[in-house]
């Protein structure tokens, strides 16, 4: 973290009650509640949103396709388990979403959670985060309505609609 920069939080979004939770990006915020508010403004500009979740970026364990061959699950006899959320990127195709939730796995560590996820799906990259660090909106109707309904009325415009802001007296040569 540099100087006054706030910690980074990964943002996960669910578009409908039946759609998967997907990793959509990250925001900088002072705490998880602040991260949820910032994520709402950044990632819920279009109508489809049912739930938002955030977790500290440093809590994510990540492994790429190259690292999967060296992945060593850390299971110990009698070791304690905790639930992990595991996300997978299924191809190298460019997308606004970079990871889909594969599932929730009881594991002794993130490597173990990803090893369990690999039994269910293929992928080119995986992320695992302890569930206890994930903070999200509640799936109650009044919460969904108050958090996401205003976005349904909001008009979406491309960035170019708003023009270019320049200092006074400075002409911008758009042909250059």
Supply database-style keywords.
Ubiquitin-like (UB roll), 2 domains, 4 helices, 176 residues, globular, alpha+beta, 8 strands, 28% strand
Give a structural overview.
With 176 residues, this protein is of the alpha+beta class. The chain folds into two domains: 1-59 and 134-167, Ubiquitin-like (UB roll) (Roll), CATH 3.10.20.520; 61-129, no CATH class. Helices cover 22% and strands 28% of the residues. It contains four helices and eight strands, in the order ββαββαββαββα. The chain has helices at 32-43, 65-68, 110-118, 141-153; strands spanning 8-14, 21-28, 51-56, 61-64, 82-89, 99-107, 125-130, 135-136. An eight-stranded antiparallel sheet has the order 4-7-5-6-2-1-3-8. The chain is globular and about 70 Å long. The two termini are 37 Å apart. It comes from Thermus tengchongensis. Pfam families: PaaB. This is Phenylacetic acid degradation protein.
């Amino acid at each position: 973290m540099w100087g006054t920069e706030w910690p980074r939080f990964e943002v996960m979004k669910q578009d409908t009650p039946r759609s998967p939770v997907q990793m959509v990006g990250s925001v900088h915020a002072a705490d998880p509640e602040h991260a949820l508010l910032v994520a709402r403004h950044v990632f819920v500009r279009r109508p489809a949103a049912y739930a938002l979740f955030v977790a500290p970026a440093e809590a994510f364990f990540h492994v790429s396709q190259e690292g999967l061959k060296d992945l060593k699950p850390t299971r110990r006899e009698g070791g304690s388990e905790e639930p992990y959320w595991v996300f997978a990127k299924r191809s190298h195709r460019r997308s606004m979403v970079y990871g889909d939730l594969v599932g929730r796995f009881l594991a002794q560590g993130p490597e173990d959670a990803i090893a369990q996820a690999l039994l269910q799906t293929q992928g080119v990259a995986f992320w695992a985060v302890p569930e206890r660090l994930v903070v999200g909106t509640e799936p109650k109707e009044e919460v969904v309505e108050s958090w996401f309904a205003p976005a349904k009325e909001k008009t979406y415009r491309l960035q170019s609609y708003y023009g270019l802001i320049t200092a006074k007296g400075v002409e911008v040569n758009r042909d250059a």
